[in-house]
UniProtKB/TrEMBL annotation:
This is Helix-turn-helix transcriptional regulator. The keyword tRNA processing does not apply. It comes from the Bacteria. CDD domains: LuxR_C_like (cd06170). SUPFAM superfamilies: C-terminal effector domain of the bipartite response regulators. GO terms for biological process: regulation of DNA-templated transcription. The keyword Cell cycle does not apply.
Length: 264
């Protein structure tokens, strides 16, 4: 009965919930996004609109975030510039996130230069997109970052901004090595590794796992040492069996010297 009452109050607008607005011209993707966010962000009132002009009706609402879908348009498109200006005029206190079919670095940088606090390529897994929105809602900035060190890593294709590709064939020896390495990781380190595989930055990992960013860095340092890796990219690839462990000179007790352990 309480759930029914609360739903009724919400529909009638009698609860002053903070508002998140989705602007997507196409009905089907807009409805899908709306349903996911209403489930994942129940502490917000989620409103959906086909155009930015509908923001005129939100002047009395506490709009915290506007998610604007631009599809294939470049950030510099005059229509996108006009939409961003209209959002800023109607909702001056709201953060803005862009939903784009592009996932290249120049597009992400162009969005950030225009004050966008979240850049969400449509190629992202839904759980990553939701985590990115959560980060923006608590005052952070989310954008897929280029994976560091990939130009120095031989014999494989670099992953894109969505994270690390894991669809590859492994022989039985590699699988056995993974099983052994996984057993060496604590449950929390395995959680951090799973987020690293998605290509997430430390701040977003911390937000998803409810950890301090310094704690995430500590876990990554432990992971790199256990994987005998120079950086986080190499650690994930070794964990997934894509790169063999390489022998390096170690300090007594098996720990890598501090000069060889790069900051995570």
């Amino acid at each position: 009965m309480d759930d029914i009452t609360n739903s009724s109050k919400r529909l009638n607008g009698s609860l002053d919930l903070p508002v998140l607005v989705i602007i997507e011209p196409l009905l089907l993707p807009r409805t899908c996004i709306l349903n996911v966010l209403r489930r994942e962000l129940a502490e917000f009132e989620i409103r959906d609109m086909a155009t930015v002009q509908s923001l005129d009706c939100t002047s009395a609402l506490d709009v915290r975030l506007v998610v604007l879908s631009i599809a294939d348009k470049p950030i510099g498109d005059p229509a996108v510039e006009d939409d961003l200006a209209f959002v800023a005029e109607c909702c001056p206190s709201a953060a803005v996130a862009i939903l784009s079919n592009h996932d290249d670095e120049p597009t992400a940088q162009a969005a950030m230069r225009r004050g966008v606090r979240g850049f969400l390529p449509t190629s992202l897994p839904i759980e990553v997109a939701v985590a990115g929105l959560r980060l923006v809602l608590v005052g952070g900035v989310y954008r897929p970052l280029p994976v560091p060190g990939m130009s120095r890593m031989p014999d494989f294709e670099p992953p894109d901004a969505r994270g690390f590709a894991s669809a590859y064939l492994m022989n039985e020896r590699a699988r056995a090595a993974i099983d052994r390495s996984v057993s060496d990781f604590t449950p929390r380190e395995q959680q951090v590794l799973a987020e690293l595989e998605l290509g997430l930055p430390n701040k977003l990992i911390a937000a998803k796992l409810n950890l301090a960013e310094s704690t995430v860095k500590m876990h990554i340092q432990h992971i790199m040492r256990k994987c005998d890796a120079h950086n986080r990219t190499e650690a994930v690839l070794r964990w997934r069996g894509r790169l063999p462990a390489q022998s390096r000179d170690h300090a007594p007790g098996g720990a890598a010297p501090m000069s060889e352990t790069k900051s995570p």
